[in-house]
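Structure tokens please, single chain.
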Amino acid sequence: MSDSADVPDSPAASEVPFDTVCLGCLLPFVLAVTVLFAIAAFDGEFFAILAGSEARRNPLPALAPFSLGGVNIALLMLLVPIVWELVKLGRRFVDMKAVWIAGDAVHFHPTLRRKPIPLSDLVQVTHQADEMKSALILRLSGGTIITVDPVDHDAAQAFAAQIEGLIGSA
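Here you go.
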């Protein structure tokens, strides 16, 4: 049985990286669509071209009445959550550590917006996986459940086992 230290570039058991492979494939496409929509929000002629497209299920004509001073407010409002998710995804590509143990606490990636949790507050850590995604589930003593996904399958299993060992020995 090989140890994770024997395999180059494998994460330590005390950290779990995000699984961004599938999302990484979509990143260029979503980025291109975001740029097109941003241009269309400020350029009425380009918006008219996109809204006049013969594509099936084109929702853009419904947004045409929401123009104010040459800017399509509805399209801008739709872009805000898309840009927010793109920024989060970009930050996850820069620093792929989703969850890690440092000292006596479990720390989370900044995009998860969680404060570090002392190991003593953890009741159970499990790994849930199906064919599409892998998630790390942390149960706290107060009844709170924190789900972190998508995470690397093998690293999440090792992390859950390590935490269970720490909790069981305490």
